[in-house]
Amino acid sequence: MSTADRTIGWVGAGRMGSAMVQRLLDRGCDLAVYNRTRSKLDPLVEAGAKPVDALSELAGRDIVFVTVGSSDDLLAVLGAKGGLLDAGSVPSVVVDCSTVSAEASAEARALAAARGSALLAAPVSGNPKVVAAGLLTMAVSGPRDAFDVAEPFLDMIGNGVTYVGEGEVARLVKICHNLFLGVVIQSLAEIVVLAEKGGVRRQDLLAFVNDSVMGSLFTRYKTPALVNLDFTPTFTTKLLRKDFDLGLAAARESGVAMPVAALVQQLVQAGIGEGIGDMDFAALIQLTARAAGLELAGEDALVADGLSAGRRAAGT
Known about the structure:
The protein has helices at residues 15-26, 42-46, 71-79, 102-114, 128-132, 144-157, 169-197, 202-211, 217-228, 237-254, 259-273, 284-291, and strands at 7-11, 30-34, 50-51, 63-66, 93-96, 118-121, 124-125, 137-141, 160-165. It is an alpha/beta fold. α3 links the parallel β4 (63-66) and β5.
């Protein structure tokens, strides 16, 4: 069966889910969408999606993607009465892009297998703005033949799709990724504060870093937050703590020493105690500055985030 002939279903039209659906609609996919709050489907319906009123209406689709908020939500979507796997027919492949526990993912995989469906764990790295820019990345684990079926559609949604093996290993990959995020943002906070204490503007230090071999999509993406102190959350400090807890638990189980990550976990916990738990995790710079006796102020500078064309404005 060709890609053009496959029918796609989608469960969950939150901010991330809607942005990912739009990527598929832009490429002409035959796509039906379910969401508990029907009104959230309106923009997607205008863009060409077919709304459905029950999960069972997606059961006949070839591939169904799931983007829900919790492990319990995933299990309910699949296994509850009236759920995706409770109909007479089931999708051949279910792709779960949610952030859920490995245990819940394994239970969901068993539910799918019992009905003759294959589950792919495909946690994503990014946010709606990253999705819209075509830069979403995802690690995928599960049956290789199911991945081969879903891969063309995963490629339509994101920029980097990596098959990492069988079972739930994609969940571990995502946790490792988020440990790295935390360590990097703390390192960035420390060097930025050091430079500012020495008289260098944050925007200038980060412009240099971003143009150097140490620059990355992540350092560029976080530059506006660090320069202008805009901590509107893309990923909260509380969520980062959750992933550090999971990551360090996995490290203990595997006998891997992670002294740097363990220290950052304590700094993240301290930040939550200082009231930045619901802010973007870039707000960790505030703790570093406070410890250094530095009072930060937003620089009100026009700086690029690396997701759109163009460089930082001259003189800013």
